[in-house]
Amino acid sequence: MKIHCLLGSPRENSNSTAIAARFAQTASGLGATVETTVLNELNYRGCQGCLACKTVSDKCVLKDDLTDVLESLKAADVVVMAMPVYCSDVPGQVKCFLDRTFSYLTPNYRSESSPSRLPLGKKLVFIMTQGAPVEEMFADIPQRYTGFLKRSMGFGDTYLIRGIGVGGGGAVGVPGQYLDKADEIARAIVK
Q: pTM score, two decimals?
């Protein structure tokens, strides 16, 4: 089983990264191959709206640090996306990445029943941390993005780890319940 972890925090030792690292460690211990990409370390642009991926190519024509990542995700069985909430949404690093996944959509994506160029049924683990201790705050973020990835990109089973009231100061003191949840999900996926 191939797992690709996308870390979307601009901080090296973030809470979302710590939760993703626990997931990766457990999955690797169970025999999965885990590849990790730190989006903040890459030099890339968001989608340019050129539509070349719909007219002259079956992939994004931009050549930058995200090119190999987009190719690698095609072969992954599981994609882990880990990020904090920044300014009431996903961080810019994640948004630019997601915009580039437009290249995964077929030219007739609006009318096709299976609009994605990705193999159907990939599993998605969505990890989001937020400093705000109120559960209702930002609850729309995982729903919006996981819904998009399922509808448009053909992802199958989706798992959510939402660290509420976890923020600031890096990964010092991530509550054990979120690390335990990462272990539990890794064990459920990598059997």
A: 0.95
